[in-house]
User: What shape does this take?
Amino acid sequence: MELQRKIASLPTGPGVYQHKDAEGKVLYVGKAKNLKARVSTYFHENRQREGRLRALMAKVVDVEVIVTDTEAEALILENNLIKQLRPRYNVNLKDDKSYPYIVVRNERFPRVFPTRRVRKDGSTYFGPYADVKSMRLMLDTIRSIFRLRTCSLNLAPEPIAAGKYQVCLQYHIKKCEGPCVGLQAEADYAATVRQVEQLLNGKTGTLLRMLKDEMQRLAGEMRFEDAAQVRDRVLALEKYAERQKVVSLDAVDRDLFALAVDRHEGIAAAAQFQVRDGLIVGRRQQVLNRIEDLADEELMQLVVERHYSEATFIPDEVFVATSLSDPETVADFLRAQKGRSVPVHQPQRGEKAALVRMVASNAELLLEEFRQQRQKQGESRIPHAVRTLEKELRLPRPPRRIECFDISHLGGTGVVASCVVFEDGRARPSEYRSFKVRTVGGGRSDDFASMREVVARRYARLAPGAAGAGDGDSSLAMPDLVVIDGGKGQLSSAVEALQDIGLYGAFPVVGLAKRLEEVYVPGDSDPVRIARASTALQLLQRARNEAHRFAVKLQRKQRGKKDLRTELTDIEGIGEKTAQKLIAAFGSVKGVRGASEHEVAGVAGPKAAARVAAHFASAAQASSPGEP
Assistant: This one.
């Protein structure tokens, strides 16, 4: 009741809310345009909760809010609190550590250097730089082109006028103009700093044009030594610009965002490219964990908001590969930061769409690299669905390898079986296996016997004393769980087969009945009922549906081969490939029979057409009654 009264008295303005547990630990941090309306939604009794949200709300006993003046302030505060508190139920971004910035210090004769701390001291910060190598290249370029001081001396007018300092090595090697001894005017130094800021903002082309104009002006004033110094800057800057990839001929500043999502693993990768004056000047990549309950649009919203809550430069426009869940919030924030509207587009065609696809390719690459890195380090996380299935069925170990069986036939003929393999919740088509049922005639009443035969054949070489996988079958491995498509009857048949070969008990086996999606366990007459929304049941359903699809495909393929073999390949000179071409062209053997010799020749050639025509003419004559 106390919590309900607290929620009822919340303000209706923007701010940040924190869900806390009984020990006062922050479980989740969020932002809102309207705190009262947003927080109230969590406590509606009729709200459907699943997964992460259900687990969160089971622990929440208190809510604390921080009111802000604007939604933009709420976004920045939310990001800072998440990094500081690292709440258990917020999506985890792998780059939540502090990446470096380049700071232009707010002081007389400003220094330019890297830092990991952003202070509100009037300094200008550029970044963050996810690629530290790229940041160091930028600093090296600045120091090779511009003569800026690197010392930490207090360059106030008084100590300079008093002659307190002497020039250092940087002055003698022409890396500094000596402002510490009054050899460089403050206005001249400030002009150099403005050029550095142009470069840090990615305005390489703009800066080159400015320097070339200055070089021409100095040469026109007969100041050739000064013009030569500017020329050296231009050459160094052009060399630096060669490292940057040209992606657009226009001079619009853009940020591009894309996602790659792996729902089975519960992870996503985000890539963001910074394009300035048509050149890629930087990129940022992130891996997101705990994404199970978030749609792609919500993930993209999260990535974009997190980026601009830290960014020091707002571009002219933003491109996204996936639409945002709340585009108005992002638009309002960018407008407040930029001072004017910043369009957010999702390009569908042309050059702009190609740019977004390039960023998406990088996100896919990052996701794959993350998977491989995690596997190398032995940190492979068992998927949530697999863990949940282990708990629901009370299995002895996580069912990382699941094998699922299904039987398929047509009216009792052409009986085949499939065995599909799932590892860590993902299908492994290369390990699928098919079976032609040998000892059973077919029909629904024979499904049990067919299942008994197939399961015995599949695992016979794993039985104690068996010779092993002598035929090189790489998929011959002990499963963690065997799923039988069917109810008690099919499951009993599989159990009998495993008992016959001495493998019953070596691994769990269950049956999945289609009608009510009930799971049957050997020795228990009552089914295990798993919630339909559970990822555990969904994993079993995916395996069952894939086994059914593969079995039906096998059955149809076998039926098609038999049709070809008995009807067309019996014709002398007509092979299986030619028969397949004819079936593809005319739809069936009946269609081939009804086609003219000229039409058949257009598909299989004149010789084959003559043979086909002669065969069907002979067959027609043999089936017609003789003349009196």
